[in-house]
Design goal:
The chain has an eight-stranded mixed beta sheet with strand order 7-5-6-4-1-2-3-8, with helices on both faces. The model has no long low-confidence stretch (mean pLDDT 86). The protein contains ten helices and eight strands. It is α/β, with parallel strands linked by helices. The structure holds uridine-5'-diphosphate (UDP) and magnesium ion. Uridine-5'-diphosphate binds at residues 11-13, 15, 50, 78, 80-81, 84, 103-105, 107, 208, 213-215.
Length: 322
Amino acid sequence: MPGNTLYIVVPCYNEEEVLPETARRLEDKLRALMSAGKVSARSRVLFVNDGSRDKTWALIEQLHRGGRLFCGVNLSRNRGHQNALLAGLMTAKDRADMVVSMDADLQDDVDAIDAMVDKYLDGVDIVYGVRSSRKTDTFFKRTTAEAYYRVLALLGVETVFNHADFRLMSRRALDGLAGFTEVNLFLRGIVPMIGYRTDTVEYQRGTRFAGESKYPLKKMAALALEGVTSLSVKPLRMITAMGFLVFLASIVMIAYNVVRWATGNTVTGWASLACSVWLIGGLILLSLGVIGEYLGKLYLESKGRPRFLIQEVLGGEEPDKE
Ligand code: UDP
Ligand code: MG
């Protein structure tokens, strides 16, 4: 029988509007799971404050004082969703047997946690929360997201379709995750690499309970690019292929021009020339950009900077001594 202490990790960035409701629902859920005997009395909700500018941390402190069920991790500053989530997972890892990660805004269905815990108790290590539909997303978000995951698949990156960061991981899986030390972090691409027994749970994704999205288009585009460049080197190969094709084309062109010259026809017009100069110039700049993107990644990885710094931890059992 595996241990059954559950930690629910929730990254929060400026979430003062939703936090009280989220805390209330998670507390109800945790108590229900405890009285059903599915999770131990040492289970907790762990909020990670990702350098919020509003009263989020004060609220977390207040929740912690109000009941033993709530813990908090305060990061030294805003490090972004993926790093905040990692900080929470790594803190929870030594205190829990299974960890569920979810967003603070209640878009992830709290009731899906039951099914996740059941699967864990059956011996599954990673349970992915998968949305049954994207009805509540805007048309733009839905189409771009779906196209993006198709592109990732084409580039050889394995992801779980329609899964974001709502998932359960066992302690063993988290230990595995700890071994992936990359600074450029795209969790939903890395978790499938861990392996072990996996399963999925379907849920309806709701709309944000209150407050506004902390993922403006710019951050979303950055996360999307991160997903590609931190997990696939195919774009670099595509540049090689493109260079090869252009080279072949130029050979054909040279041969054609030599024949024209030999048969006494001089090529007139600068349009074709100008066009090809711009075309090749554009392709070169694009290729340099792609290479630069990877070089930048390499630069950051080689520094091995910490992915997050923890200012303060509130509550929870002390980590097990080795
Ligand atoms: N988040 C975070 N740090 C950030 C941005 C977001 O911890 O820099 C958290 C946020 O509080 C929420 C989760 O990441 O719990 C997902 O953000 P959001 O719901 O705004 O994204 P969306 O659902 O719009 O994609
Ligand atoms: Mg959201």
